[in-house]
Amino acid sequence: MNNFLKLKTIFTKSVYLLQEEPLLKRIIKFVANERKCGTFATKVQHTSEDSYLEFLGNWPNEEKQCFLQDMRIFINFVNEDEEQQLLNEVEPYMKRLRYEYDHWDDAIHGFRETERKHWYPENRKIIDKIRNTGFADEIMPFVHVLDLSSEGVIKPHVDSTRYCGNIIAGLSLLTDSVMRLVRIDEEKYQQNDQSNVQQEYRTQPEQSHTLLASTFHANVLLPRRSLYIMSNTARYHFTHEILPNGVSTFRGQPVQKDRRISIICRNEP
């Protein structure tokens, strides 16, 4: 009789754990996203993603390990048909807009943009796939769609935590491109209530060429239809930019950027 009761107890607990598995997974994922990178640096496993990262300058080993965790690339995140589905939805609106060259904070030139909350059902599945891949909780309801012309450029900048959280995920469509991340003085760009960064959506270094010459940085190849997820130290200890043609290279080879549409998801501040 005692053995029967023990078996019944084990079975009941097993059923409960199976029912709670999605919650447990989300809790584990949340803890992973909120961790301090240095604590887990020794646990980083080098994967094929490393082939899309080019480290330049004198990188401290711990910083490099953190970067490998906080800058992730997912190749072929969508297929050709899914890319076309997304374009079919956003193109009719984008074609009515003109490319802008005088952005209010001077960080982007040659662009047009919109935000979209409601998506066609087949594209909603892709947005949900991005959310499930990069975020433990819900993403901001409005998804940013950024259309950068072939001559367009995103200058080096640091985003503010006032407007979005510690994770950004971007799906790159239509073309390959190179993102550069340059280490900054985090005290100057610290994310707190007293920081000037809080007053703007994004902040640009005064002399980005001087910054590049004096610190270490990484070039990140973003292949067409890939997803990048940038979080924590990669997001706030580095400027990030999309390189223009002429200086857009990866491991010594030129990467010609054409028109680029990115679908960008963020979490809440």
From TrEMBL:
GO terms for cellular component: mitochondrial matrix. Its cofactor is Fe(2+). GO terms for biological process: DNA damage response; fatty acid metabolic process. InterPro entries: AlkB-like_sf (IPR037151), ALKBH7-like (IPR032870). PANTHER family: ALPHA-KETOGLUTARATE-DEPENDENT DIOXYGENASE ALKB HOMOLOG 7, MITOCHONDRIAL (PTHR21052:SF0), SPERMATOGENESIS ASSOCIATED 11-RELATED (PTHR21052). This is Alpha-ketoglutarate-dependent dioxygenase AlkB-like domain-containing protein.
